[in-house]
Amino acid sequence: MLGASMVMLWGCTSINVESNRFLGSPSFQPTDPATVQILQAEPKRPYVRLGEVLVQPQGKPTYSAIEQRVRVAAAQLGADAVIVEYDGARVAGWNYWGPRWAPSAYVSYERVIVLLAIHYTDG
């Protein structure tokens, strides 16, 4: 019974992560994910913009699980840090139900986190 509950819990949570290098951005060797910083504001240190990391968590994944996936994706771009640009909801689509002559509709939303991957230039 407990095993079935655990399977159901795991089945309801996922984290989709995409990383995209900006056109013309410099290339760096991948960094260690454990060293990638997650920043809420722009750092004072000089940096170059490498790309964007887009996260779409489904269900209720833990913050540490989301952060780990972000660090891995950013490290593959050669990032030293990521800056949170957006953490909120976006329209995922419309849901309709009922008969054709009197349908009901509502907008469904999904959480999206957009981060800017950066590499420090001061060493």
How would you portray this structure in words?
- This protein has a single domain, classed as 2-Layer Sandwich (Translation Initiation Factor IF3).
- The protein is built from two helices and five strands, in the order αβββαββ.
- 20% of the residues lie in helices and 46% in strands.
- The chain starts with a helix and ends with a strand.
- The radius of gyration is 19 Å and the shape is elongated.
Q: Secondary-structure map with pairings?
A:
Elements: H1 2-11, E1 14-21, E2 37-39, E3 47-58, H2 63-76, E4 81-97, E5 104-120
Parallel strand pairs: 2-4
Antiparallel strand pairs: 1-3, 3-5, 4-5
Low-confidence spans: pLDDT under 50, at least 5 residues? 1-9
Report the total helices: 2
**Which structural class matches the secondary elements?**
alpha+beta
The CATH topology annotation reads as Translation Initiation Factor IF3
**Number of strand segments:** 5
User: What's the overall average pLDDT, rounded?
Assistant: 90
The CATH first-level class comes to Alpha Beta
Q: What strand order characterises the main sheet? A: 1-3-5-4-2
Total domains, how many? Answer: 1
Question: How would you characterize the largest beta sheet?
Answer: 5 strands, mixed
